[in-house]
């Protein structure tokens, strides 16, 4: 029961952080429509999913609850959709799957939150990947879960 309570606390904390991130962003102006008969050229992404790899190093053989965050800078005029692939079998997730149009300017703000409840894992490395797209541009962030002797990377 205690781990369920901890998972709920992390999920609520992630939701509060997302709400704060969204409250601090402003909506971007909609794009002008294309001239009749002319399709606009594909535009380069005006947003950036912070690069690098997020790691979680935990004791093997114990269930664990934590979260990962996708930090996004820039602006986007269409909703961003997010998904994650590669978590170990038995992982329960609670995550932001759609981000409404917004503008974070030059600041990388925690916009995509992924709460995870991991089952006991055998020693080893478990790579996963967050994918975010606006329908035209797709960006990814690596996630690595490492089950080892003790907590800490």
From TrEMBL:
- InterPro entries, A to Z: DUF5980, TAT_signal
Query: What PROSITE patterns does its record include?
Result: TAT (PS51318)
Which ranges of the sequence are coiled-coil?
none
Record keywords: Signal
Q: What is this protein called?
A: Secreted protein
From the UniProt annotation, give the residues forming the signal peptide.
1-31
- Could you tell me the superkingdom of the organism this chain comes from? Bacteria
């Amino acid at each position: 029961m205690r781990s369920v309570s901890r998972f709920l606390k992390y999920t609520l904390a992630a939701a509060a952080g997302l709400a704060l991130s969204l409250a601090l962003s402003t909506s971007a102006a909609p794009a002008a429509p294309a001239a009749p008969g002319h399709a606009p050229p594909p535009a380069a992404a005006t947003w950036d999913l912070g690069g690098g790899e997020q790691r979680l190093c935990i004791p093997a053989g114990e269930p664990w609850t934590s979260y990962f965050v996708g930090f996004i800078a820039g602006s986007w005029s269409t909703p961003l959709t997010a998904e994650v692939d590669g978590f170990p079998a038995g992982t329960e997730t609670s995550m932001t799957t759609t981000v409404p149009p917004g503008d974070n300017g030059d600041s990388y703000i925690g916009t995509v939150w992924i709460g995870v409840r991991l089952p006991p894992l055998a020693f080893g490395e478990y790579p996963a990947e967050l994918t975010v797209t606006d329908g035209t541009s797709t960006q990814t962030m690596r996630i690595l879960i490492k089950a080892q002797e003790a907590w800490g990377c």
